Amino acid sequence: MASVVLSEAEKVYIMHGVQEDLRVDGRGCEDYRCIEVETDVVSNTSGSARVKLGHTDILVGVKAEMGTPKLDRPNEGYLEFFVDCSANATPEFEGRGGEELGTEIANTLYRIFNNESSIDLKLLCINPRENCWVLYVDVLLLECGGNLFDAISVAVKAALFNTRIPKVRVLEEEGGREIELSDDPFDCIRLNVDNVPCIVTLSKIGYRHIVDATLQEEACSLASLLISVTSRGTLTCMKKVGRGSLDPESIFEMMETGKRVGKLLHSSLQTVLDEEEKLGSARKKVGFLG
Amino acid sequence: MAGVEVRLPAARERLAQGLPRGAGEGGRDLVAPGDTITTDPGYMRGHGTYMGNEKLVASVAGVVDRVNKLVCVKALKTRYNGEVGDIVVGRITEVQQKRWKVETNSRLDSVLLLSSMNLPGGELRRRSAEDELAMRDYLQEGDLISAEVQAVFSDGAVSLHTRSLKYGKLAQGVLVQVSPSLVKRQKTHFHDLPCGASVILGNNGFIWIYPTPGQKDEEAGGFVTNLEPVPLPDREVISRLRNCILALVAQKLMLYDTSIVYCYEASLSHQIKDLLKAEVMEEVVLQTRQRLLELEG
């Protein structure tokens, strides 16, 4: 991952600041930087979103393709994740440099979506055992400014919210079934994203923990906890990253903070997504040139 | 008391079409790459320009700078081009034999020779092999220093020196990185601001904000770092200054002591973390700009 080198004194300054609940940029320990979300930015996807969180810049595209259901789940579709770490983000990602991080993020995404309630996969089934929709979720990392996981999960949720899958009908004919695509391009299925979890990363700095760490703060933190929280505050998965250790008591504190912040994150995100939807075609697209 | 704000991105406002280009502030010319600067063959080609079809064409976006017959374009976004006497802030990236490599946002890493720095304690003598072995005790990878440019080599690499008590290792504080062309050249780049913090405006665009030192401890020669916690009021000032500087940079205003102090004063009506929001930044910088214009008269 992109990382910065800091001098001892700078680290001490950041650590003391966290202790006093005043971080370098003036935020408190539980404040996020301003998140900018725009959906429907890539026209040739089924759904897409771009999220900017400070200097972190994420683009997510969701593409629905026809496939065959997995053998153990014949009446469900499935999601595939792929994370591409662009060398634009940091020169370290050049060549195969970003592969390891990309796989790590993709695996985390698989884990947080690996439960029945997050997304109704039955909706994606067309023909049990034969056809289903496969949602390819492609994440592109354009810039790293700390707190990648949270930004990516927000972007994935926004992109899934934006996803429109064309409606199809199955026609029974002699000699087999045929799939017919609806003529109306606006005739489509939307996914229910109410239960899609978002990741809240809590980084332990000194005796306290913070959310939404910048690169500099990440360099000061030895251990952090990834918590995926749904909009109701249910914790669906948890992962510790970093080489330091966490004591159980602080893990519980971090979980509580994570749930509280996660709920807020979901409600703010949903408000903005609804607002954007309401604007419809009147919305000015900003994209990459704005 | 958590705070999460999600919003839609705001499109950048386009300047009114048909605004004559080249009639910028103070009669200075703004050019984009490919713009013709002059068709007069009498001019000399400087940095940021090239000759194409007997015309002088800009190769970077920036301001045209004419010195007699020499025409240069000073780019807005650029790496640092060293000049002798500049004050820079840099980060040590490597400890080598008899020298440190310093990252100063220039195209090549700068060097700081062991012989061009004051030894701790201010001893004056030739550097011995023991000094070479102790180099990492003075400065190690990641440390920040302030220094002056001693020489510029033919390939553009910069050699630094810290032979003054003003310069040396930096202790606790915040580094802000901006474009070098936004730092105004002045007599002094070390400022103790009236708001209670100090800044070093490095010519290379590295800006160091730190609590104003109480008394100048001279015997240490700037190598002993104070790791005592910085009091909260000082922290608030430093964070506010950091956000103010970022706001000025976002609106492309030149950075010097007056503009920073004015921006700080304009920002006092807002919370520190609110200064991260684009609309608050814009408002604060607008007030700053107004005051600066009044000052010019």
TrEMBL record, chain A:
It holds the Pfam family RNase_PH. It is found in: Cytoplasm; Nucleus, Nucleolus. Keywords: Cytoplasm, Exosome, rRNA processing. The keyword rRNA processing applies. Residues 32-166, 195-260 form the Exoribonuclease phosphorolytic domain. Its main location: cytoplasm. The keyword rRNA processing applies. Belongs to the RNase PH family. This is Ribosomal RNA-processing protein 42. It comes from Gekko japonicus (Schlegel's Japanese gecko). The lineage of its organism: Eukaryota, Metazoa, Chordata, Craniata, Vertebrata. The gene is EXOSC7.
Automatic annotation (TrEMBL), chain B:
It comes from the Eukaryota. Keywords: Exosome, RNA-binding. Coiled coil: none annotated. Residues 17-38 are annotated as: Disordered. Residues 30-67 form the Exosome complex component N-terminal domain. InterPro entries: Exosome_cplx_N_dom, Exosome_RNA_bind1/RRP40/RRP4, KH_dom_type_1, KH_dom_type_1_sf, NA-bd_OB-fold, S1_RRP4. It is found in: Nucleus. Residues 173-212 form the K Homology domain. Residues 79-150 form the RRP4 S1 domain. Belongs to the RRP4 family. This is Exosome complex component RRP4. It comes from Gekko japonicus (Schlegel's Japanese gecko).
